Amino acid sequence: MRVLLLSDTHGVLDPRVAELAQDCALAVHAGDVGASAVLDALTTAAGRVLAVRGNNDVPGKWRGSLDDLAALPQVLDIPLPGGRLVVTHGDRQAARQRHARLRATYPDARAVLYGHSHRPVQDRDAPVWVLNPGAAGRARTFGGACCLVLEATSTDWRLDAHRFTSA
């Protein structure tokens, strides 16, 4: 199963990220979505989208349907072939020791996906991977929009990182 992992679009989805979603069975957004249009674009591309609420996903900043915003949970626990993916925005854990705390909070997950920092991370040094796909929009991309594609099988998980340089 191919899964697009993304975060921190802040209302703008890079079209190259949306194009990657077309080859995925699922898109998973780790918060700071920013707009219903982002969810709509991902649904059009991937067919199925799951997303959590980020610290900027609030009524005063949200563009689009407030019903879409209200439907975003704080945490998702997604069963995938070969394990569980837990998704949270990451703003509730201090940057220092964030990975250790996420691992301690979700010890039965195969991986924890978070956003918030806008910086891509693949911490696979422990049994619970901690992943941040970076920012998939235009805000604070630090060199270009980025995301991860997870290939999940019952026996193996493989990650491919994608970064699209700014024009």
Could you characterize the architecture of this molecule?
The chain has 167 residues and is of the alpha/beta class. It has a single domain (2-165), classed as 4-Layer Sandwich (Purple Acid Phosphatase, chain A, domain 2). It has four helices and ten strands. Strand 9 and strand 10 (157-165) form a beta hairpin. Helix 1 runs parallel beside helix 2. The longest helix is centred in the first third of the chain and has 11 residues, at 36-46. It is globular, with a radius of gyration of 14 Å.
Topology of this structure?
Blueprint: E1 2-6, H1 15-21, E2 26-29, H2 36-46, E3 49-51, H3 66-70, E4 75-80, E5 83-88, H4 98-105, E6 111-113, E7 121-123, E8 129-132, E9 144-152, E10 157-165
Parallel strand pairs: 1-2, 2-3, 5-6, 6-8
Antiparallel strand pairs: 1-9, 4-5, 7-8, 9-10
Helix pairs in contact: 1-2
Summarize the structure.
With 167 residues, the protein is α/β, with parallel strands linked by helices. The chain has helices at residues 15-21, 36-46, 66-70, 98-105; strands spanning 2-6, 26-29, 49-51, 75-80, 83-88, 111-113, 121-123, 129-132, 144-152, 157-165.
- For CATH, the homologous superfamily is named as Metallo-dependent phosphatases
Reported by name, the CATH topology is Purple Acid Phosphatase, chain A, domain 2
**Overall mean confidence score, pLDDT:** 95
Strands ordered across the widest β-sheet: 3-2-1-9-10
* Gross geometry: globular
The helicity comes to 10-25%
Distance between the termini: 31 Å
List the uncertain runs: none
The portion of residues forming beta strands comes to 25-35%
Q: Which CATH architecture? A: 4-Layer Sandwich
At the first level of CATH, what is the class?
Alpha Beta
Task: Describe the sheet with the most strands.
Answer: 5 strands, mixed
Total count of strands: 10
- Which secondary-structure class do the elements indicate? alpha/beta
What's the number of helices?
4
* Total individual domains: 1
